[in-house]
Amino acid sequence: MEKVFVGIDTGGTFTDLVAAPLRGGRYFYRKVPTITADPARGIIQGISELLEENAIAPEAVAFLVLGTTLATNAVLEGKWAPTGLITTQGFRDVLELARQRRPHYFNLDIPKPMPPASRECRLEVSERVAQDGSVVTELNLDQVRQAIETLKEKKIETLAICFMHSYASPAHELKARELVKQLWPEVYLCTSHEILGEFREFERFATTTVNASLMPIMDRYLESFERGVKSLGIPHSPRVMQSNGGAVSTLAVRQRPVNTFFSGPAGGVIGTVGLGQQLKMPDLITFDMGGTSTDVCLIHEGVPAQKSERQMGGFPVRTRSLDIHTIGAGGGSIAWIDAGGLLKVGPQSAGAYPGPAAYGRGGEQATVTDANVVLGRLSPVALLGGRMPMYPQKAKQVIDRLAKSLGVSAIKAAAGVIEIINVNMMGALRVISVERGEDPRDFALVAFGGAGPLHAAEVARSMGMRHVLVPPRPGLLSAIGLLHADVRGDFSLTRLLRAESTHLRKFNAGLVQLKINGRQWLREEKLPAGTKTRFEWFVDLRYFGQNFELIQPLTKDSLTVASLKKLVSTFHRRHKAFYGYDLPLQPVEIVNLRLVVTALKKSPAAAKPVLPVGAKRKKLEQRLVWFADTGFVKTPVYQRDQLRLGQRFKGPAIVEQMDATTVVPPHCQVQNDRLGYLHLMLDVEKNSRSTS
Amino acid sequence: MKKAIDPIKSEVIARFLLATAEEMAATLMRTAFSPNIKERADCSTAIFDEAGEVIALAQRVPIHLGSMVGAVSEILKRFGLSQLRPGDMFIANDPYNGGGTHLPDINVIAPVFVRGQLVAFVANIAHHADVGGMVPGSEAAVCKSIYQEGLRIPPVRILNEGKLNRDVFEIILLNSRTPDERVGDLNAQFAANTVGTRSVVQLFERYGVKSTQEAIAGYLDFTERRFRAAINRLPKGRYESEDFLDGNAAGELCPIKLVLTVGKGRLHFDFTGSGKQLESARNIPYRALLATAYTVAKAMLDPEVPANAGYYRTMIIHAPAGSVVGPVPPAAIGCRSISASVLGDVIAHALSKAMPKQALAGSGPHHLFVLSGTDPRNGVYFVDYETVAGGMGARANRDGVDGVRVHASGSSNLPAEALEHAYPFRIERYALWDESSGPGQFRGGAGVVRDYRVLADDIVVSLSSERQNVASPGMLGGGAGACGAFILNPDTAHAQVLPSAAADIALPRNSVLRICTPAGAGYGDPKKRTIAAVQSDVLQNRITPEYATKVYLEGDRYES
Description:
The structure holds 2 protein chains of 2 kinds. By secondary structure, chain A is α+β, with helices and mostly antiparallel strands. Among the domains of chain A are: 79-213, 3-Layer(aba) Sandwich (Rossmann fold); 333-411, no CATH class; 487-599, 2-Layer Sandwich (Dna Ligase, domain 1), CATH 3.30.1490. In chain A, the strands form 10 sheets. In chain A, strands 13, 14, 15, 20, 25, 26, 33, 36 and 37 form a 9-stranded mixed beta sheet that branches. Chain A is globular. The termini of chain A are far apart. Chain B has 12 helices and 20 strands. Among the domains of chain B are: 7-224, 2-Layer Sandwich (Beta-Lactamase); 359-529, no CATH class. Chain B is α+β, with helices and mostly antiparallel strands. The interface between A and B is large, with 70 and 91 residues.
C-alpha cells in the first residue's frame, strides 16, 4: 500500500486539508469550515471526507501533521486554565510588575495584561539560588507543601514552578516538582528551567506561566483530535507543527503548548522552503496575505530566519520560532479617514462576515477588496471558481462615499487604498529585511494566501525586488508546507560567563546537559527505527556589557581551548560585519548554549504540473484594469489552469484561478515554468541598487 | 492660494518615514552597549524636515517627545547652512544650548542631502549612564548647578564628512566614569543615523525632492487639524491647578502653578506663579516642559495622533524665566524627569477639569538611585543607574495601573537576574506595595518595593525622588497615594529612613537598601467602590480585611 501524507492547516474561517502519496506528485485537497466551538470535530470530519472522496485507505496514512491556532486563540481571548505559581520568596509580583512600562505610552485606558496566574494563586516559598547556581537559602519543603494545599483549595488546574536563577541550578525546582508530583499527581505542571533555561526572570516566568495555563486546553484538544484520528482507522499518531517549523509528537506539544503560537503560518514558510529547493532558489521572502492579516518571513540560503521572543497576549514568550512578522492588514482591511483628513487603511477588518461590500453580504465599509474590484483587478463576476458571486456596484458605492469625503475621484480613492495597504506591506517587509541587515533586492517574493498575488508585484517593485513567484496553488501552500516539515526540537541553557578557558568545564557541562535533554526528547518522539537525526550546536555571544547576542554555530558538541579561541575571533569578525564595528579589546561573553535536534523524514514528491484543462484556445477574455502608470487599460484575463507550461506573456495581465487572482502590471514579463510556477519579472530601475 | 495637499501621498510618505525612524531605533538598540539603552530602552530616534520640525519619531521614552525640538535650529544658528556637508554629524547634550533635557541624554544629529540639497535631518537621543559631574550617573537631586552635573556639550561636529572628530570624542570619553561604554553607545548612535540617512535619501529620490517636501508639509498640517478637532471637543474656558515639588530643605515646598486656557483649536498653558528655580536638580528645563505638555495632552485628548510637530503647533506654553519650570543657567536640571511627573499631574489635573469624564488623579513618580563601587567578583568599578516605577493615578472610570512609569517617563526596569550578573547586589524582594494605593471608587495604582542586599565593601548610593513629602492628590473624594521612602536596613532594630535626596551615602557590606515608590491617588469616594472590587482586592491580598472595613465599608465589617 502506498504511503500517504496528510496536512491540515486550521485557519480562522476555513481549514485546508491536503493529502499526497509519497510518490507520483499527486495532491488532493479539501476545504471545510472551521468549527470554533469544537475544532477537533470539524477537522476529523474533513479528514474523513478527504480520504473517502479520493479513495485513500486510512491505513495508508503514514504521516499526519496539524497546524493549529488553538494556543494563539486561547491567549488572544484570555481563555487560560486556572493557573497557580510557586515562586521564590519576594518575587510573586514579577508577572504583574512586568518591565514597569505602560502597555501604551499615550492610551491610558489600556491596562496591564492580567497574568494567567492571579495574585492569590501566586505563592512564595523560602529558597534562593545565586546567579552562579550556588545556594543562598535552602528550599523550604514545608512551605511547598503548604502552597500545594492552598492551591488545591483555589481549585487551580495547572501549576508553574518558577524560581530565581533556576537556569543556573535547577535543583530547587526539581525538588519542588518532585513533591508536587507526589502530593498532587493530577495537576498539570511545568518548571521554568525546563520550559526556558535562560536568564531574565520576567521573561522566563511569563513563558513558563503562559505555558502552564495552556497545558490543560491543549491536552484536551489533542486528546480529542488523536481519538478522532484513531477512530478513522489511521494507524499512526498525528504530529503538530511548532512555531520553529518542525513537526513534533502530540506529547511534546502537550508539555509545551507555547511552542505552537506560529504553528499555522509556519506551514507557509516551510512550504516556501520546499518550493525554493525544487526551483533551486534559496533566497526568498514569503508574502502570505489573507483577509485580515499578512505574514512575512525571510528565507536566506534555504533557511528561514528565526526569532527567540514574541509578545503573546501582552506577555513575552521566549521560544524559538520562525521570524514571521504579522501585520493586521489584508483584503478585508477597512479604509477610513482620520480626524485630520488623512486616508488610513486597517487594522480593522470586515472579516468574512459581513466582509467587503463587494461580497454582497451587507458590508457597508470600503475595504481593500472593494478597491481591487473598482480598479478591475478582481473579477466583477465571481470568485472561487464561480462559486462566490461579486457585486461590483456595491463596491463602487462604498468607494464613492470614501472618495467624496476625501474630495477626490473614486478611482483616485481606490488607488489610494491600494497604495496605502501596499506601503503597510512594505513596512512589514522592511522589518524582516532592512531592520535585520538584509537587502530585500537579493530575494524573490513568494506570493500566496488568498490576496498575496493581487498585491505582490507592486509591493515587490516598491522594495526594488525584481522577481515575484506565484506557486501553483497560492491558497493551499501553507497546508502543503505541513507535509514537508521535519521533526525538530530546540533546547537552550544560559551559561552567562566570559568566553575564557577557565570556564571551559562549565560550558562543556552545559553542553552535556543539553545533549541529555535532546536525547530524552528524541526518545519521547518515538520515531521509526532508522530515522536519521542531526544534532546542531550553537552559542549566543556578546561583548561584556552588551545586551544583544549573536548566535554562532559550533562544529562540535564540546569546546576546547583552541575552539573557544576561534569562536571568539569569529565573533569579532561577525560583529564587525553585522554592526559595522568591533571591539577587539573588549571581553566576550557566552550567554546561552543552544541545541537543535532534527529528525529528517521523507516528503511527498512535488506536485506534478497540471496540464491545461477545459476548452482550449477560447478567445482570451479582456477587461479594463487600472494601473498607476497607465490608468485604465484593456487587459487580458488568463485562466491559470489553461496556461501552457513554458508559456510566456507580458503585462498588463490578470491571471485568475480558483484560490487566487494574480495582478501583472504593465512591462512585467511572465513565465509559467515547467513546474507550473508563475514567475513575474519586474522592470525595476537598474540604478536603484546604487542608493543603498 | 495654498496648494491642495494629497491626503494619500502624505500618508504613504509618513508611513515610510516612521518605518525609517523605527529602523534607526532597531539599529541603535541592537548595537548599543550600556544596559540603560539596551535593557531599559532609554533612547529615541527622529526625522526632521529641513527647517527642523519633527516629522517622524520612534520613541521609547515620552520625555524625548520634545527633547529634540529646536536642536536643528541651534545647529543652523551656530554653523550656518553653508557649512553643513553630507556625512557630518553633530553632538549636543546641554539643555541650555540645543541639547536635550538633561546632560546624560546625548543627541546626535545628521543633516541629510540629496544631490547637494539639504532635505532633512535624522537624529537620535540616548541616555548615557555617566557623563561626569559630581555624582556617578551624572544625575542627583542634590546638585546645585549644572556645572556639577557633568560635561556640557554644545552642538559641535562629531563626524566630519563621515570621519570621526577624535578631538571631541576624546574629551567626552575622558569626562565619563565609564568611557568604554561611551565608545560603544556613541558608535551605536552614529550607526543609527547612517541607516536613517540612507532610507531618507531613498525616499526623496523615489518621489522627488519638491513633491516629498510638499507631502511632508501636508502631513504636518493634517496632524495639526486632527488635534485641533480634539481640542474643539473641550468646553472653552480657564482651568487652574497647582501641585508641589519637594524644595531645597527638608519640609520646604515649591509650587507648580498652571492656568490652562482652552480656546478655539488651541491650548494655552501659563505657568506664571510657579516657584523660583531651585538650587537643586529638580528644575524642569524648557524641552522637558514641552515634552511633558505634549505627552499629557496627547494622552488625554487623542492618544493616536501622530507624534510630530503638526500637533505641537496647537499648544502655546509660557513659563516665566527663572522659575522652576523655566530655569536659566546655571540651574541644575538632572532629575527633571521625576519633577516632570509632578508637572504632568498639574497638567492632567487642569485638563481633567475640562474633561471630567476622563479625569486622571495624581500619580506616583519613579524614584532614582545610582549605586556605584567595585565589584569584588572582578575588581571592576561600576555605576548602576536605576529607576523604580511608582503607580499611576485612577481615572474617572478605572483603577490606576500598578507599578508603572507615568506621564513623560517611560523606560523599563533592569531584571533582577541581569542585575545580579552585572553588579554585586542581591534583590531580596521585588513586589507591589500593598495598601499603598490611594483609595477611591477607583483606586490608584500601587507603588513598588525593592530590596537590595549589598555584597561589596565600597558601595555608595545617591538618591533622588519626588512625592516623599507631598502625596499624589486624589480627585473627587479619592484619597492620596502613599509617599515614597528610602530605608536602610528595613525590618531591623536599626532601620533608618534616608533623606529623599542625597549623594554618596555609604552602604556597608550586607546592609539592605529598600526603595518604596509612591503610589497613585484614588478617584471618587471610597465608599462608592463596588463590593466586588473590594472583595477582589482582599482576595488578592492587596488590602487586608481590616483595611477594607476601615476605608471602604462605612463601618460594616469586612466578611469574606
